[in-house]
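Reopening this one. Same input as before:
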Amino acid sequence: MDKTTESFTITYTEKDGLLYPDLELPEQPCEAIGCFGRMRRRYLKEHRKAYYSLLCMKLELNDHLREINRQVIEQIELITDQLAKAEGVTEQLKARDQLGWVQAMNSCRTRAEEQVVRETVLT
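Same output, byte for byte:
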């Protein structure tokens, strides 16, 4: 049986009498992870340490956080619209009572955000 293995050479740099390996990480995109991505990162660091470490080692953490942020924003918008429709928060209310409309929409958005964060970010 013929097994082929990849051979690679690790170079070292001496500093203060110690040898340090010359290791480089691949380029990572510098895209923002958003507030829900940051919230997810904090949750993973504190409550799911093994999963957080695995994502870091596989260089998949930032992609995961960006995807969570995108999903949360989409779900919040969808649920907010559904709640507003179910509670009769319409354009007619907006034209008639702007402050009441803003209060009702803020209430819908807050409830949607709480639900989505609990189900998506904190799991």
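So the earlier flakiness isn't reproducible anymore. For the record, The longest strand covers residues 12-15.
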